[in-house]
Amino acid sequence: MNDLEKHITSVEKFLRENKWGTQPPSLYEPIHYMMELGGKRLRPLLTVMAYSLFKNDAVQIIPQAAAVEVFHNFTLIHDDIMDKAPLRRGKKSVHEKWNVNTAILSGDVLMVKVYQIFCSLEPKVLKAVLLLFNQCATEVCEGQQIDMEFETRKQVDVNEYIDMIRQKTAVLLGFALELGALLAGANEKQKLTLRNLGVNIGIGFQLKDDLLDVYGDKKTFGKQVGGDIISNKKTFLLIKALERAKGKDKTELEKWLKTTKVDPAKKVKAVTRIYDKLDIKSQTEIEIDNYFTKGLGGLQALPKSANRDKLGQFILTLMKRQN
Question: Which of 45, 47, 212, 239 shows its CA 20 to 30 Å from the CA of 251?
Answer without folding.
Answer: 212
